Amino acid sequence: MTTTTEIADKIATDYGLTKAQSKTIVEAVFAAVAAAATSGAETSIPQFGKFKVKETPERDARNPATGATIKVAAAKKLTFQPAKALKDAMNK
Question: 47-92 belongs to which homologous superfamily?
Fold first, then answer.
């Protein structure tokens, strides 16, 4: 697993930044993606993929312990669709 700290360390090493500077940049990118998602906007990163907000409708579900039917409220979720270049790179 890769953490934000590991990503920041790699950026600091590759681009000659301090770890604090690169950590700020990484956190700012994630904050921008989160802000766009919160407003319902799509974020597209070329050669990487798209983050989209998808609405899920209200549905019925079952409690596995009791078997009782419950309503699951409608919600929004964040989905990621990888770009073709990323898929191709993963499958080499």
Answer: IHF-like DNA-binding proteins (4.10.520.10)
